[in-house]
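thought: fold this chain, then report.
action: predict
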Amino acid sequence: MLCSFCKREEMEVRLECDTCAKKFFICLKCWNGWRGKVTHCGKLLDVKRFISRSDAHPPLDELLGRAAAEGRKFQSRLSLSTIEMFVCSPLSTYGSTTTSDLEEVVRVFALKTSVATLRSMLFADYVEFTAKHNLESGSCGATSSWMDDVTTVGGDAPAVGDIGAPALLSLLENTPGPYYCRISRKPHSFMVERLGDEVRVYQSYASKYSLAHCLEAMRPMTHAKFCEDFTLALTELGTGEEVRQAKKRLFLIDVHWSQPRIQYRLNAAPARSSLVLQNLQARLQAYRGEWATCLTKTIEELAPDPVPQVFATAPLGPLELVDTRQKLLVYFDEDTFPDPLQLGMDVDGDLGGYRVVAQNGDVFTLRRR
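observation:
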């Protein structure tokens, strides 16, 4: 996504017209060097004043833009389009469902390139390639998880709860902002942000769209409109078209729920902007060394053989896994396959040890250790 003004640089910060909600995307150079004012709908909007209007709790996408802009000092490929990659380890990025199987990447996205060309790419070029073509969709569970982490004051995290749709709707309707609520209902997980009367939904969706695409397509909603759409999306009590349109406004696609119960974590005392930025910077710094090493290698060097991907396809206990590369069945019992799984967790099975590298609802991606 390029800057709306210079049309050259990668955008970093979002500016939105208060009247019509039209979005403008501004690069770091224009943000720092802007000398005039943006005119839209008969109004003059000062870029810097708009960006800093709510220092305590600005929108999370604004803080992501700031973190990306500052991180460019040590990682030139870091931008709002790629930050979803750099807040996680590089192998987790490569292990996500849209980048781990290059044949699938070429087929699903109808790319005019070959698998051999992709495998010969430097990982640095591959990162830019995936950002340009919107291939790095990540895992909805991983995205909502790290967003939950960076917006939480350390040691003050509310517990995860299990709830039905009517009770969750009542909770969100009656909790004043600012708050963040991480919500998981199989097969999707997402983050809800309420700041005053504005509500935003942050998410990615494996093999569908990236966080960067979400930030570009997302429209802030009034709290009343959010509650109306959320009720339709969760209860599905409405005409088919009403429910579909509500889901698309919230989740960008028509999500089909596979479970009635919902897991949530409501954070009604989120971290202020300065701490959120610190948390984002800490995550970027934590993986800085790994990225520096991996960016200089080709995909072939990082993964000499196609990486076996194993997907959980049934509830725990006992759990049947299917290795999509080798067409093998892998069985884990409840003792060797713990519940709940966590990203980065090591688990063992009858074909060896695995590490959990991505999650999308009840589907887990494991890499052989």
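thought: worth noting. DSSP finds 16 helices and 16 strands in the chain.
final: tokens above.
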